[in-house]
Amino acid sequence: MTDTESLDKKPTDGESGGLKKNKKKQKRENAWRPEGPRDPFAMLDSLPEKEQQEIQKALHLFSLGTSLPKTLQQAKKHTYCFWDTQPVTKLGDHITTEGPVEEVDGSVRNEPYLLPQGFSWDTLDLSSPSVIGEVCHLLNENYMEDDDNTIRFNFSPENLLWALQPPNWLLQWNLGVRVDTNKKLVGFIAAVPADVRIYETKKRLVQVKFLCVHKKLRLKRMTPVLIQELTRRVNQQGLYQAVYTAGTVLPTPITSCSQWHRPLHPRKLIEVNYPGLKQNMNLQRALKFNRLPEVTKTKGLRPMTKEDASRILSLLEKNLHKFHLSPLLSLQEVEHWFLPKENVNDTYVVEADNGTLTDMVSFYTISSRVLNHPVHTGLKAACLLYTVCNATGVADLMQDILILAKSKGFDIFCALDVMDNMSFLEKLKFTPSDKNVHYYLYNWMCPLMSPDKVALVLPN
Length: 460
What we know:
- The chain is an alpha+beta fold and 460 residues long.
- The protein is built from 14 helices and 14 strands.
- It has helices at residues 4-8, 16-19, 23-30, 40-46, 49-64, 72-75, 129-142, 157-164, 222-235, 266-271, 283-289, 309-320, 331-338, 394-407, and strands at residues 119-123, 151-153, 174-179, 185-198, 201-213, 242-246, 255-263, 301-303, 325-327, 345-351, 357-370, 378-389, 412-416, 431-442.
- Strands 1, 2, 3, 4, 5, 6, 7, 8, 9, 10, 11, 12, 13 and 14 form a 14-stranded mixed β-sheet that branches.
- Helix 12 crosses helix 13.
- It is globular and about 60 Å long.
- The model is unreliable at 1-21, 27-37 and 57-65 (pLDDT under 50).
């Protein structure tokens, strides 16, 4: 979306009479003009923060005109030039069987896919502080902002390492795109290995995460090439299926889930105009409606420790088998995904008098920046991962979790209507947002499933 030609165009001799610049104006323009060819990224970075935000907002609004459909009705009128070439089921197909969309012959392309001229692939070593910092910056500036461009994700290195380095992660699956001239990171996509159960089939595949292209390059069609190159690298390891989620409708969702919100600090959310809040409530009513008790009630409720991992694994195995799409976790994965890490994730367990664990709840943290607000600079959201309730009512336990989350400084609690979550969402005053999360399988077909049969939550 950069137009360096128009920026560099000079008036002809015949035009120069009306366009001649005085020396002071020319000097002011040249003050930020680098020697040699102009770098549009450096030009944007050199502007004041407020002007950068205005330009980025305009770019975001412009990009909405060519965005992918967000509803099935819109999707039926859309032409998917890239996805029509991929091994995924087509919109409108009625699938009654399970299996790969395309059988693989084991041959994998040796050479990387070609990028547009001026860009190169880079395998990103996230253990490097400078590299993980670059990835955070790219995501924080370009990954899934709200439509008003006033609230933006604020990923930390700790968030990304938790999401991208579970047991058996591979370096070559952290894929970046750089500009040849200045080595700026402008594209990213990642995959992590996972074992899942799809209906009755146990499958080793990858979870695809954090697909992101710099705003100003989205008309260069880098996204398909990123997907193809990551697919090639995954195929090299003998894996040919993937699971991923998106807020847009692609061919073809196996299920579509709604995102629900529960305000914990409604005053702050109203002041920053948080998207999705009920608009028919004034401040006093919102404070009263969302009031929570001061203390928890569940006896034996405490944070998880490492010694709880094997018992949590047992709880999850007994609970998750009833769903059509669920993770198959190892002990090491339980420790990775659930052991609490400050400002990354939290897990609470209920321990009975005899020492057995009867219940557990886990959630992860998403931090956001608030732009151009006179008071607030950030928001903190808790996003539900898993609940298992055997001895405690799920609504009672979740109310205690809301109390604990509020005491830890979270502003809002988010949950999908997956698993058994609908049994407490409305009761605990969660409200549905206008955001949907669509689940997809790559090179695997199966019958559609309802959200309450999904037990796979992808921290993304």
